[in-house]
Amino acid sequence: MMFKYGVDRLDVNMVNAIADGSVKAHLCQEALDKVNKSRQNVDKMASSDKAIYGINTGFGPLCDTQISPEETHLLQKNLLITHAVGVGEPIAKPISKLMLITKVHALSQGFSGIRLDVIQRMLAFIDLDLIPVVPEQGSVGASGDLAPLSHLFLPLIGEGELWQNGEVVPAAPLLREHGLAPLELHAKEGLALINGTQFILSHAITALTKMRYLLDLADITGAMSIEGMQGSESPFRAELHEIRAFVGNVEVAKRMRRFFNGSENMAAHQGCDRVQDPYSLRCIPQVHGASRNAYYHLKEMAEIEMNSVTDNPIVVSAEEAISGGGFHGQPLAMVLDYASIAASELGNISDRRCYLLLEGLHGLPRLLTSSGGLNSGMMIPQYATAALVTENKSLCFPPSADSVPTSMGQEDHVSMGSISGRKLNQILGNIEKIFAIELMYAAQAIEFRRPNKCSDIIEQNLKVIREKVAKLEEDRLLKPDIDAMITLVKTQAFTVN
Questions:
Q1: Residues annotated as part of the active site
Q2: Could you tell me the domains of the chain?
Q3: How confident is the model over 190-210, as pLDDT tens digits?
Q4: Residue 182: DSSP 8-state
């Protein structure tokens, strides 16, 4: 399969496939024609006496200062250099690569006025794995991600840094090794490169990829905890969810029914005198389902964005470039904040189930150990889940609710969406750790239900756990067990469908 930049439609699966090399992507003739036509339009405007923002004027509050054709190249170079003021640790190399891929797709749609040579150099970076180093902080997410995108494209002009074998190295000598001379940017090209939302978007893509698995893992983890506590199946019956048919709720309830299908353990307590389970068991479809709904919303918005043109101005003819706000990150910022709350709640309810598993109810020993007193059993890992849950709550403040004016007031409302994207990924990282501990607890609880067997999918996941973490018989150092569980979650070792 071959993806056509600027013509075909990107989605989360496709952009990840391009990034991992399983799908090849190129510029087809249609995209080449659009890019060249747009560039011809810019060249005509750049040589005219009419002031056109971003083409023959300064930027931001200097938009009323016209630039001569002779100064155009220096103006575009200065734009990248002066805006590359990011701070903090570098973002992960795969996120920088997603930024390159999504930026190529946006520029190839023929509204940005950039030369084909520049796009082809970006494609060479992708093909040669010459991925720029981008600091994580410094974008307010509203003239686009100016600082991150400036760092992303410094290597085009022989500046900045690149990743090599996991290390940060100066770009210039590595580019020379590959025979890539610095480019000279022409009218509008610097602005086309650094205006856009690709930093926010690439964090959203990264989060969506991780969150999809964690949503599925949340369900199987909850099902294993219910098996351990011999909870009720009735809250997952189809009749209940047909009359309150939120998409996420219905999907989760259906999955839970499948996870319990054929379970000897669930059948062993049919007709028991328990009337209702606590909410963290009974309301899994409502809570996990609401988080799924937020995921679907983020996915919809991110896939619109990854097929959009988000620089400014937009070149529509040889006479007109429309200056607007297509770079503003608010559409993604708000939904990223919503997704952060949704992800955090997955951890919140998981911690509650961990606590229930330790209480010593429903035939389980307190602290999941049959020799309590001398042994503390699994008491303390729940402290970690409690700490992680509170950390996630503190990360749920919505950056999109804030705005600090920049650029002498020209950019007087900004989205802060870059912070929203980074925080969502932090929360998801904490969720992985919380689920790891709940899975360890659930596996321990199920041991006390033997010889009853669970469904095939749960037994399969129990086997995965027991290959790395033994049943706790008496107190031992649990940190290696927790680390092993976290690795299983991060590497997506569990069967979730």
A1: 53
A2: 2-196 (1.10.275.10), 203-490 (1.20.200.10)
A3: 999 999 999 999 999 999 999
A4: P
